[in-house]
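chain below, 101 aa
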Amino acid sequence: MAQCRGSLFRLIRRPNNQLDERKRIRMALDVARGMNYLHNCTPVVVHRDLKSPNLLVDKNWVVKVCDFGLSRIKHNTFLSSRSTAGTAEWMAPEVLRNEPS
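prediction:
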């Protein structure tokens, strides 16, 4: 396993934050690529708790998606769940209002 600098959450809260705009854009692309990979797997993997504490940054500033404890496999066209999963502070407002997303 690659050595990590820590979670993105911890890194962006540091007072001596080393994340310039170029690095931040590259990191956002890493997250997008990771989620794209999961969503293009067969069957599709839905993370359900994507947030900065669940993004690890390695020594080369590459972001890795982690913590798949709430993830689900999507076998059908639509993923339905009878329970709200994830961290409320990071959820879309329509999910919290129990509206279709």
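The first helix runs from residue 8 to 13. The chain has three helices and five strands.
thats it, cya
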